[in-house]
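Format notes (please read before filing issues)

Several people have asked whether sequences and structure tokens are stored in separate files. They are not. Every record keeps both together, in the order shown below: the sequence lines, then the token lines. Line labels are part of the format and must not be stripped during preprocessing.
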Amino acid sequence: MRVVIWSTGGVGSIAIDGVRHRPDLELVGVWVHSPDKVGKDAGELAGGEPVGVLATNDAEALIALKPDCVIYAASGPEREAGAVPDYVRLLKAGINVVSTSSTGLIYPPAYFAPNWREELEEAAKAGNASFYGSGIFPGFTSDQLALLMTTQSKKIRRITVSEVALNDHYPVADVMINGLGFARPLDFEPMLKTPGFIEMTWKAPLYLIAAGLGVEIEEVRGSLDRELTHRDIEVAFGTVPAGTCGAVRTRAAGVVDGREAIVLQHIIRMARDVAPDWPTSDCDATYRVDIEGDPDIHCAMTVGDAEGHGAGHAAMTSTAMRVVNAIPYVVDAAPGLLSSLDIPTTLPRHVFD
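Then the structure lines:
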């Protein structure tokens, strides 16, 4: 299957390496945003050996290659608004798309922009192509892992899906400071505090879990908590001064039959000793599914080495491979906007070395 990769950032670079080692996938093109990367070998941009494919910023030239699938991994604060027109253009051209850029499209029926969803549906129908979005959280943990755990359930009162992460390695200051509020006093209002933002961000995985279990969500309730650090913390994006935000917790709850039945929470710290009363982990990133019911079920997954370190790169690898491994299933699927409920478990091929 002929594959184009859209962007060579962290996830895109991992996808390049993932595709190049798959005998059933052929890398035929790579799109880049930066003019400095145009004309460079895609393998070298990904930090590896040359692969004989040169990067370009000419989208029409890549479409003309008629790939079977595009792996879309562009990032940035405006990624949703910029990505949707690209998706439409690709789908209309008959090219399947798998994406890590649009977490709201993990469950398309709940997408926050109905007009964009309709445009995407029309494009998929016109091009006889499919779209699939995934990742690790939102993505795998908040759909397939959570639903897999429920296959053991007789009764369920509440499902809680969590990520507990040490995120001191993330280097993008604008996202961490202005988006999440780190290194700011608690009276600063980050993007996360925008009314409705948390509910919008986590709506898709909440509704996906509900759809998988055959229940209806009556409303989504969102909340934001922040805790101060009492010492300076040096992190990848700079310094988090004492007396500013050093930990953030977002929580979104789907109400079913009048109670908060499906809950997603995301806890990020700049150091492990900040917010000690919140759920903690000895690893850099822990993903949990906790089910209160009959029986109670508790599942914890870590990524990284045996001690749970190096989670930043490991999580990006997991994110990239969720869509790389999905390509054969998406190409074979009926045209349209897909979720994990619409395709088989995306078991990988050619992974043993």
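For reference, the curators noted about this record: The chain has a mean pLDDT of 94. The CA atoms of residues 48 and 232 lie 37 Å apart.
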